[in-house]
Design goal:
globular; alpha/beta; about 375 residues; Rossmann fold; 2 domains; single chain; eight-stranded mixed β-sheet; 14 helices; six-stranded parallel β-sheet
Length: about 375
């Protein structure tokens, strides 16, 4: 099978979409499929055997790590040379619209997937009044596809409720070999806590941007004054957050990757995640695979991962007292109770491999191709 994938973001950007896409491309290539990836140009020409066709792009003024790539007529030649059986557009916004256009123009079956809950983002950037319009635009784009995939059951329901058709679930995945409790070590805990390893250590991993609602962690630090917080990641909101968290025991670590990131998860007492705009939250699975129990808001795709009181604790949206109570529950557990929570978090993560998620995706692809063939001969 030959698959052309259009994505608005790829390496060297680090986020959940790129993580899923990296593993998907790797497993598709490993299983004998051929992938051509269209993405904003970063100078990378190949990934795990897949050819990358970079499209010239400009950084967004408010978020320089995100690049805007506008489709160009030359894309058609690259698609025709590759002769894909199917086109898959990831979060179609700008470049992805080119993928939709050429799929329709060239008669190529189309799959789309939804990974970023853009309508909720609008509230955090002061343009919430545009939410209705955005849903209409999303519906117009996604309903061009024969299949729309979401990464949590909550998003399947929400997209269907807003008139997006042919929606199904693309299961979650995590690298349980790299993210592992055995990577816990004293040196990383010293680093994250800035030399204070004996007090509770909370960790946040992800984009440092407005929609992640990282400010909501501050009341927890004020209520548990001996707790340290390590914020791993970067983004346009970092400077204002450094000012906001001044005077608290907060360490802005910046990006960590690979085994360093896995060790950071494994060294923390709990992973704290306040974002209400998550379609899934792959970082939650990474934390759990590392044996780090989760405290997260009960919103979006998060309840698909976190079972309250079993492998972590959920708190109510926009309720600081609920978040504080959830953190205290974990920190006040006995050592045997903490170990049970860590074990159950790990066991949940072990259910979800990237290999299985990609096998499921290939099954979806085959179904679309078969339906398209039957329609053509009918």
């Amino acid at each position: 099978m030959r698959v052309a994938i259009f994505t608005e973001t790829f390496l060297p950007k680090i986020d959940g979409i790129v993580t899923r896409l990296r593993h998907t491309v790797e497993h598709l290539q490993r299983n004998g499929e051929q992938v051509l990836l269209f993405c904003p140009d970063s100078g990378i020409k190949e990934y795990k055997g897949a050819k990358i066709q970079g499209v010239s792009a400009l950084p967004l003024p408010l978020y320089p790590e995100l690049k805007l790539a506008v489709p160009r007529p030359t894309l058609r030649r690259h698609i025709e040379d590759f002769q894909p059986d199917l086109i898959h557009v990831i979060n179609p916004a700008v470049l992805g619209l080119g993928g939709i256009y050429y799929a329709k123009t060239l008669g190529i079956p189309l799959v789309a997937s939804y990974h970023t809950h853009l309508p909720q983002y609008l509230q955090h950037y002061g343009v919430g009044a545009l939410e209705g319009l955005l849903w209409e635009l999303l519906k117009l784009a996604h309903n061009q596809a024969q299949l729309n995939l979401c990464t949590s059951s909550a998003m399947v329901k929400e997209l269907s409720a807003h008139g997006i058709e042919n929606v199904n679930l693309w299961q979650k995945g995590v690298d349980t070999e790299m993210f592992h409790p055995q990577l816990k070590n004293k040196g990383m805990r010293e680093r994250l806590s800035r030399g204070d390893p004996h007090n509770p250590l909370l960790i946040y991993v992800g984009r440092v941007s407005a929609e992640k609602q990282i400010e909501d962690i501050k009341p927890i630090l004020e209520a548990i004054p001996n707790a340290n917080l390590a914020i791993v990641g970067n983004g346009p909101h970092r400077t204002s957050l450094e000012e906001y968290f001044a005077g608290t025991r907060t360490h802005f670590v910046g990006y960590l990757e690979g085994l360093e990131l896995a060790s950071a998860y494994a060294c923390a007492d709990t992973f704290i995640f306040p974002s209400q705009s998550e379609t899934l939250g792959l970082v939650l699975l990474e934390a759990m695979a590392s044996g780090c129990p989760v405290v997260a808001v009960n919103s979006g795709g998060i309840p698909d991962i976190v079972s309250d009181g079993f492998n972590g604790f959920l708190f109510s949206p926009n309720d600081p007292k609920s978040a504080i109570e959830a953190c205290r529950k974990i920190l006040n557990l006995s050592e045997s109770q903490k170990e049970l929570l860590r074990t159950q978090a790990r066991e949940e993560a072990e259910k979800w491999s990237w290999a299985a998620a990609t096998i499921q995706l290939k099954t979806y692809y085959q179904s679309v191709l078969e339906t398209n063939y039957l329609s053509s001969v009918a």
